[in-house]
Protein: Baeyer-Villiger monooxygenase
Organism: Streptomyces griseochromogenes
Amino acid sequence: MAEHEHVRVAVIGSGFGGLGAAVRLRREGITDFVVLERAGSVGGTWRDNSYPGCACDIPSHLYSFSFAPNPDWPRTFSGQRWIRAYLEHVADVFGLRPHIRFDAEVRRMTWDGENLRWTIETARGSLTADVVVSATGPLSDPKIPEIPGLDSFPGAVFHSARWDHDYDLRGKRVAMVGTGASAIQIVPAIQREVGRLTLFQRTPPWVMPRVDRAISGAERRLHRALPFTTQVRRGVLWGLRELQVQAFTKHPDELGLVERLAKRNMARAVKDPALRAKLTPDYRIGCKRILLSSEYYPALARPNVDVVASGLTEIRGSTVVAADGSEAEVDAIIFGTGFHVTDMPIAERVVGAEGITLAESWKGGMRALRGASAAGFPNWMTIIGPNTGLGNSSMILMIESQLNYMADYLRQLDVLGVPPGPQGTGGGRTALDARPEAVDNWNHQVQERMKRTVWNTGGCTSWYLDASGRNTTIWPGTTTEFRRATRRVDLAEYEVIRKAGERTKTSVAEADEIDEIDEIDGKKSEAAA
C-alpha cells in the first residue's frame, strides 16, 4: 500500500461479490477504488474449495453474471475449476487487476467520525476509504467442531475448504465428518481410491438426482453466434426456480411429492433396508438445502463404506468414536462441517461509530437494512448480508440486486455531498447511517414472513439458523421481490452525517428532490454503461 493511501471505495474480497462490485463501480464511472484480497488470487470460495468432485448445484448459465455471459460452459453444472476460470476471466476482461491488492487480509476497519471515513488496517499496510463494501461471503471461514482428542490425532486432518492435495488418500482409512453439500461430492470422488471410508452423519440430507450433461459443441456455437439464446436459456432456468419459491415460503406441505421422488431416488441405489433407514431424513424436504447428486447413494452402498448415523464425539489416538459408541481406526479425518455463516469472523474486525464491533452489535443476531446496511456503521455495506441467501436458486441474482443498491447508495452520497445546480461544487464529505428503527422494521418484516417457511417449520436444525434459533441467512421470497426492494435507496431509512458530525433525518420533500436528481444521474450512468 502507498503511505496514506485514500480511496473512495474499498471492496473486501474478490469472489463473485467483490468482483461484481468492482465491475459495477467501473460501470458507474468510479475508478478510485481497491479490492482487498487476503489470498494471492481471485475466486473466493471457488478458489478455496478445490476438493475432489467440487462443483456447483446451480446450472452454469444461471450461476454467472448477467453482464458477463459465458457461451462456453462445458457442462450444465460446471465444476470448480471452470467457475474459478470464469472469475479470472471476469477480472481480466473488465480490467480489474490494477485495482486488486493481493495478500492484503483486512485486520481492522475503524470508522473515523471526525473525517467521515474508514481507516483500514491490512496485512500490507493501512489505507482510508470513504465507503467500504464488504464482500467476504458467508462461506469463507471453515468451521471445525471442538472434539476431545482431535489435537492428539496422529494422522492427517483437514477441512473440505482447505484440502490437503499433498496427502495421498489411496488405500487409507478415512473418516468423513458431515453430510452437507461438500460431503456428498467428496464421498463418491474418493470412495474408489480409499481403503475404507467411514461417514459420520448427524442428520441425513435429502438428495435428488443431479441431471448433469456435457453441453454440446453445437449449443456453444449457437450461444456464441446468437448471444440472445444464452439469455433465453438463463431466463428459463431463472423462471422455473421462481415458480418453486411459494412451496418453500408459503406452502411447505406441497413439498410432499418431492419427498416421494427423493425416496424413490434413494431406493434405486440403496437396496439394503437398514442403510436406507439410516439415510432417510425425518424432516420436511427443503428445511435443509436439497442436495443434488447421482453418485452419492451408489457410493454409500459400496462394501468399503460404513455409514455411522451419529456424530463424531471423541478421538482416542487414531480411533474415532461416535455418539452411539461405535468406533473406527482411521488414518485421516476430513471435515465437511460447514462455515461460520451466522457468526462471520469479519464482523469482529469492523468497529463502528459507537466504538463497538459489528459482532457486538449483532450479538442478538445478524440484521441489516435490505441485507446491506447495519445501524451504527456509516458508509459500510455488505454483499450477501443477513437474510439474502437462497435455498433453491442462484446467489448471483441476489448479488446483482445488492450491486444495484450499492450503486444508488453511492449516487445518493454524490448528490448529498455536492449541492444541486450547474455551478455546485465542493459540498463537503457526507455519510449515510441506517436508522435503527429502519433496520428493526425491515428485520421484523423478514422474520414475520419467515415464520411460515419450510426453513422454520420443517422440523430440522440447519446452518440457516443462528444460536438462538433465528433464521438470519435466508431470503423468504423470490429474487424478483428482492430486486424490487433493493432497486433504490430510500433516504428516509438513513441518517445523513455531515462533515461537522451532525446527524439529520432526510425529510420526505428532500428525499423526493434527491431522488429526482438521482434518477437523472442513474439514467446517465446506465446510458454510459
Notes: The chain is about 30% helix and 15% strand. Residues 227-249 form the longest helix (23 residues). The CA atoms of residues 304 and 495 lie 62 Å apart. Residues 419-427, 524-529 have pLDDT under 50 and may be disordered.
